[in-house]
Design goal:
Structural class: mainly alpha
Strand content: under 5%
Number of strands: 0
Number of helices: 6
Largest sheet: none
């Protein structure tokens, strides 16, 4: 950001010199006496403006990338809220719930307990540790879209 700020200051300084050049008819002669080309001011303007354009393009790319991510997040949030408002489950939640319901049938008691805890946390309901009530609940959610999961 500091580089953009300094290039803007340089661009303003060069613009001021360009505007003041007609008031300085001695400038081309003075530049030649120093061994510099008479069109040095023009070359400096072009160089500063080229750097300014490159910096602005880089900033535009950076901001475009940042705002694309923000826009994507807002769109995902909107889709999730819309699905909840319509009473259905988000596809990712539906898939997770299906996997957790399947895990309720595991022979390992720690897996069953963990799956049950996650189901309660995701759905906000406690239908017990047996898979059948959860399967019925999930079928109703998928079929009619009734009920809310949050």
């Amino acid at each position: 950001m500091a580089l953009v700020r300094w290039s803007s200051v340089a661009a303003l300084a060069v613009a001021a010199l360009v505007l003041l050049e007609p008031l300085m008819p001695w400038l081309p002669g003075w530049l030649r006496s120093l061994g510099l080309p008479a069109d040095l001011l023009l070359r400096a303007c072009v160089a500063v403006l080229a750097v300014q354009v490159l910096l602005l393009l880089a900033t535009q790319q950076r901001l475009d990338h940042a705002f694309s991510g923000v826009l994507q997040s807002f769109q995902e949030f909107h889709r999730a809220r819309k699905a909840e408002a319509e009473g259905g489950l988000q596809p990712s939640k539906r898939e997770a719930i299906g996997l957790l319901v399947a895990a309720l049938g595991s022979p390992d008691p720690s897996i069953r307990a963990s799956s049950h805890g996650h189901l309660v946390r995701i759905t906000g309901q406690d239908l017990g540790t047996a898979p059948a009530p959860w399967q019925e609940w999930l079928r109703v959610q998928q079929g009619s879209g009734a009920g809310k999961a949050s």
